[in-house]
Structure formats: C-alpha cells, structure tokens
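Sequence in, structure out.
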Amino acid sequence: MNRQTSIDPATASPVQPAGAAGPANDNVSVLILTLNEEVNLAACLASVGWSDDIVVLDSFSQDRTVEIAKSFGARVYQRHFDSEPAQRSHGLREIAYKHPLVYLPDADEITPPALRDEILAVARAPNRTEVAFHVRSRTMFMGRWLRWSGLYPTWFVRLVEPHRVRFEREINLRTVADGPEGKLDGHLLHYTFNKGLNAWLEKHNRYSWHEARESLRSLETERVDWLAALIGSGAARRRALKTLSFRLPCRPLLRFLYMYVLRGGFLDGRAGFVYCGLLMTYETMIVTKMIEIRRRERGLPL
C-alpha cells in the first residue's frame, strides 16, 4: 500500500469541490513531483518563487531533494511511486491547496517571467470558465533550444482546477479535463538532459518497454485513422501518425529521417543531429523489445 508522509506541513484551505465555480484569486498553488531531483529542483523552485503555496510530492528521494524543497519553503509530502497517473491524481486530490488553480511544472522545467505573468492574469480573471490550460515547452539541449527537432509546438496541460482533471496512460501522459480548456501564450523551458545522458538513456530504456507493448497492442487492435493523419490537428493527428508508425518498416531509420530532414532537425545544428540520433536509438530499443516480447511469448530466447 502506498503511504503518504507529511513533512513540514503548512495551513491550507480545502480543495474546491468538482463543479464549483473558480473565484478570482491573486495567486496559484504549485505542485511538483520529484524523485532524486537535486540537480533540477532549485532552479525550478526559484522560477515559481512568486507562488505562496508550493507543494512537492516526493517519491522518497535518496538525494538532497527534500532538503532543497524545504529550504525554499515548500510543503513536502512523500508517497511511493506506482505510476505517473496515480501519483498526479494523488497530488491533486489528496493534498489541500490555498488557491483554486494549481500549476504543475516538472522538476526539470523552468517558468520564465512572461509565463508567470500570464498564469497570474488567469488567476485574477473574474469570469474564467476554463478548468485546464495547455502550455508549450521549449526543449533545451547543448545550450540551445531545439526549435525543429524538439517537436515544437507540443502542448502539455500545466494549469488546472484539481478536481476537474484526470490522467491516463503511464507513458506520454494524457490529461483529460472535465470542462472547457484554454491555451497560454508563454513557454516553459524544459531541461530534459540536466541529469546527464546516462539518466536520459536509463529513463528511455524503461519507457521503451511500455512503448513496445503499446506498439504490439496497436498492431492487434487499432486501425490507422488516415483522415486524422492527413488533415487532423493536435492530439488526434499525433495519435494517428503514431499508430501509422507502428506499421512502418525500418522504424529507427525512418524516425531519424523524419526528425532530421522532414521536421528540419538539421537546422538545430550539432545539437539537432545528436538529438535525432538519440531518438533513433530510442526507436531501436522499442523495436528490439517488440521482437523480444514476441519471442518470449513463443518460448524462444532472444
């Protein structure tokens, strides 16, 4: 059973019940999920220091994560991690917040002043109807923004009314809102390689197992939505293209060519070339694990 440990709790009012109208407010609360984030957390917390209610939900880190969070005045809770949807749901539904809106940056994301001002303007809006807001991120690598090879613009839900959203899928998390949604003009800065290349490879090695199983399920149960793939927009088009990609030969090479040539990754210079190569490596992990799963099911060694 997962247990929650409260460390240095502060007074907070109950979370607003689902369906309640959100009143205008001068600030927002912040929730950050962590696991061994001492490299990233200080910069992330410094960029949201304008909030008067910061919560860190930690998965029992073994480094200085909790110490850093407390030094910034955050309320820290701990819960054993089982899945990202479960962890995020717990953070929003089982912890009380001072404000109707909760901002959800990842520990390796920085919130620039322009995005901060936009978030606070949303909080102050007296007639707001949206219950969730999408934000674009800029993937940073080797000292530059991966404008072309970073799949920009990709939108993530980062500002929510806690009881009006739910989460789906362990990998490539999907946020489903119970009400109108909006988009913010500002950007997050995503430093996905801050922990080093080994950490990136270890994470994607784990993810590749989920992706391999998803690929096999898709091949067995889904059909390509050609209309969405050709003229769709947003999440529907990305999903259709991903379903199509499961059926293509030479997936790792095609992934590199798509990202580096068709998406213009070559315009990102050396950083773009290296990043597209890493994505090809990730795709190779997925394809190889699909082969392994199929062979294991037939009682054969890899």
